[in-house]
Amino acid sequence: MPVASPYSSLLAEIPVERRVAPVLGGSTAYWTYGPADASTTIVAVHGFRGEHHGLEPVVAHLPDVRVISPDLPGFGETPPLPGRRHDLAAYAEWLTAFVAAVAPGAVILGHSFGSIVVSAAVAGGLPTPRVILVNPIGAPALEGPRGVLTRLAVFYYWAGAKLPEGLGEGLLRNGLIVRVMSVSMAKTHDAELRRFIHDQHDTYFSRFSDRDVLHDAFVASVSNDVRRFAPRIAQPTLLVAAQKDDITPIEAERHLATLFRDAELVEIPDVGHLIHYETPAPAAEAIRRFLAPSAPGTR
Fold first, then answer.
1. Which of 15, 117, 265, 286 lies 20 to 30 angstroms, CA to CA, from 231?
2. Angle between helices 88-102 and 211-223 (to 10 degrees)
3. How far apart (Å, rounded) are the C-alpha atoms in residues 119 and 39?
4. What is the pLDDT along the chain (299 residues), one digit of tens a residue?
5. 70 CA to centre of own chain
6. Neighbours of 2 (CB within 10 A)
7. Closest C-alpha among 49, 109, 55, 48 to residue 277
């Protein structure tokens, strides 16, 4: 039985519509939240193995903003890109084409792996007035506080891709392994919130199209980080980072902020890589402040 979202009452007040757009010869499923006449539109890109539902707690705290949230190709309700390897270049090209088709000029937000996709696309020329990165991957995952676990993950995804199809798919969709991943990321001591987080991962973490796409995306996620693209991003950029993130330690996020031409770092305490689930209200408040009009020469 699904676990009720702590944010359901807020989300219920926000209009939402599912749509589909043709992009790069395929189709992209996306959801629009908020008023159609909002002064600000954000395109929000989710993380690895996730899909658009994961960012809904943040959306719930931004009722006056129009948020467009697609499922990445090969995840959720978006099929893989036809005839393409799903590497970072393909995802960056897809995002650039998607924004041009659906919301040109929008602010671009990326969470976790989405932060890498967004950074690559913006550094490559995706037009946007501002960039928002939540739990940005600011250093190689293999060098993070849980580098050993990341190496185990490398073997896990390799085995899932190489085993006979039935065994490989079963391994990659194994509920016990998904739960271990969820437990390792959650920091909250709130039992109800932990149940919600685990239910979200149980429900959505295995909604990938096939093991080849999953392996390609995993390789892209551990082979790249935002540092590579930061110096080429001129737009004002907001980094919303967690002080207990096991994937990118806060010291690395502080260094990452210095690599951008114009970056603001907001640190959220007592949370790890699940800002979008555990502390969406502080994240939304940081986003709201970042997007608010300011006097000339101020931020």
1. 286
2. 100
3. 24
4. 678 899 999 999 999 999 999 999 999 999 999 999 999 999 999 999 999 999 999 999 999 999 999 999 999 999 999 999 999 999 999 999 999 999 999 999 999 999 999 999 999 999 999 999 999 999 987 665 566 667 788 889 989 999 999 999 999 999 999 999 999 899 999 999 999 999 999 999 999 999 999 999 999 999 999 999 999 999 999 999 999 998 999 999 999 999 999 999 999 999 999 999 999 999 999 999 999 976 344 34
5. 11
6. 9
7. 55
Residue the block writes with tokens 């603001």 = 264
Question: In the block, which residue shows the tokens 């036809």?
Answer: 82
Q: Is the CB of residue 239 less than 8 Å from the CB of residue 139?
A: no
207 neighbors 80 (Cβ within 8 angstroms): no
Q: What is the DSSP letter of 103?
A: -
> Would you call 134 helix, strand, or coil by DSSP?
strand
For residue 181, give both structure tokens: 């991943």
Angle between helices 165-172 and 211-223 (to 10 degrees): 50
CA distances 53 to 14, 117, 206, 244, Å, are: 14, 18, 13, 23
What does the alpha-carbon distance between residue 61 and residue 266 come to, in Å, rounded to a whole number?
Answer: 17
Question: Distance (Å, rounded) from C-alpha 134 to C-alpha 262?
Answer: 16
CA distance to 185, 206, 280, per residue, from 273 (Å): 6, 18, 12
- What is the distance between the alpha carbons of residues 229 and 125, in angstroms, rounded to a whole number? 11
Helix (H, G, I), strand (E, B) or coil at 284: helix
